[in-house]
Design a protein that fits this description.
alpha/beta; five-stranded mixed sheet; 10 helices
Amino acid sequence: MIKKRTLMALSMVSLLTLAGCGNTGVATDDNSSAAQTESEETKEDITIGTSPGPYSELFMDGIVPILEDQGYTVTETVFTEVRQVDVALQEGAIDVNVDQHLAYMNNFNKEANAELVAITPIPTVPTGIHSATKGSIDEVVDGDIIAIPDDASNTARALLVLQKAGWIKLDESIEPMASTKDNIIENPYNLEIVEMSSAQIPRSLSDVSYGVIPGSILYAAGLSSNDSLLNEDILPQLVLHAIVDSGNEETDWAEAIVEAYRSDEFKAHLNEVNTDNYWFIPDELK
């Protein structure tokens, strides 16, 4: 399992200062614009916005050493919510984030009129069905209580896992990642599907029949992926990606991050930490 790392958050003053120095300012002339572009391409300091969980730790343990060997210095700014990270990316306060999938990024871009860009898929932990009292999905009975996440993207993926289990059927006319409980057209077990904060589900397993837990929450709760009774089929829009702001995707430092994820050195590190098949590995990284 990935080594735990003590994370240090920058102060709000530092964050605002960094935001003011980011690449969102308007150049006053062509020379200034060209100088800014050259600076972004050749800069040696990379600031990553992290969140407590497996994706940031995999970056810090497996990617940072590769970047440092190439002469880069990586600075870490800690956030508690992915949306905060996206705002910081949009404002230029940080350079990269590795804690979100495409569905979340696209939703943020739409809501915030942002232009965040994915530069490479990265290892992803699947969402799965867990239980404190049952040893199989075949033990489901009439009236069982199922806990699922209450945020839109994770609600939809949880419902898709329940459908994969054969417990419900969703309206096929609805785009899968737009599904809600209202789109359940068959519920043969009369399941009581309860939405709650993802972080609350592991603590509530003893009070429900089954819980659908996203991979990052599973990790934070100290649970094993080996205990999952059924994992999701990860849709392309649910694969995690390294994310940058538009205009930075072709910089030297962004390309260095992509190459690091696809390097033999990172593959070796991933083999060491993936002994229990905790990670789903995108084809680009195999």
